[in-house]
Design a protein that fits this description.
The structure is a homodimer of 122-residue chains. Helix content of chain A is 61%, strand content 7%. Chain A is built from five helices and two strands; from the N terminus they run H-H-H-E-E-H-H. In chain A, a hairpin with a 3-residue loop joins strand 1 and strand 2 (72-75). Chain A is elongated and about 55 Å long. Chain A has a two-stranded antiparallel sheet with strand order 1-2. Chain A is mainly alpha-helical and 122 residues long. Chains A and B meet through helix 4 and helix 5 of A and helix 4 and helix 5 of B. The structure holds a DNA duplex (30 and 30 nucleotides).
Chain lengths: 122, 122
DNA sequence: TTTGTGTACTATATGAAATAATACACTTCA
DNA sequence: TGAAGTGTATTATTTCATATAGTACACAAA
């Protein structure tokens, strides 16, 4: 379900948090679904439970999950988060394209990239 | 000429290298121009010369500059690098847009972003 | 020869990340 | 009630990249 890249410079707890963010944003993990327990996931990934907990704390802080004492962590309603994520993504794209323009990338090249992606899937 | 962000998680030497990459790619530093000496820049930025040297080693490894013993470091011809950088940037954009599509961003939203940027400047 | 340059080396300090080992409160369920 | 599974908190320790510090040497230019 979750894999780890030990080559990456990103700390493990951030990698784990990011994976779950993606799963939640894309709807692969629906609201109210229970997250794997800290101990379970630690065993699965062969890392320390504290690292998992740190990832979960981060996810909670960002609004992706909420904890219930004695029961577990659960996925939050993510509709608001999706909107935020869209905005931040558009901002990232904007910055990249501005850079690209300065490097001499033509407008049509960007358009092509978009066209291909939106024609491909459906 | 170069500023440092101590809030950033990026190591100093990577920050410095990135700044120079940008300057070189955008043509603000032309080929054959001499880089600031390791010691000079270290004093300017109030950091250790070894850190500058690490940044320069990285830049050399990536082909942005080349060293001449006893004389200094000089900016390489960057035309090839610009091409590489364009390709890598387009790839980054591609990935972001694919993510965006999955999150439900519409094609027109991306087009708008591009249009604004390419109409604005000129 | 002197000055400024790159380069190399060793040692040390610092801080984030990760591990390890416990402990406690809570919920669920047999 | 009691056992098992859950989150949560704490402290100590290890590990590693980063950054600093100090020194040394070879080369080029004036």
């Amino acid at each position: 379900m979750i894999s780890i890249d030990y080559q990456s410079k990103l700390p493990l707890y951030e990698q784990i948090a990011q994976k779950f963010q993606t799963l939640i944003l894309k709807g692969a993990l629906s609201p109210e679904v229970q997250m794997p327990s800290v101990r379970t996931l630690a065993v699965e990934l062969s890392i320390n439970p504290n690292t998992i907990q740190k990832a979960y704390s981060l996810l909670e802080q960002q609004g992706y999950i909420y904890p219930v004492k004695g029961r577990g962590n659960f996925v939050s309603d993510s509709s608001v988060l999706v909107q935020k994520e869209k905005e931040s993504l558009l901002e990232d794209v904007r910055q990249l394209i501005e850079e690209g323009k300065e490097l001499g990338v033509r407008q049509t090249e960007f358009i092509q990239v978009i066209d291909r992606i939106y024609r491909k899937g459906d």
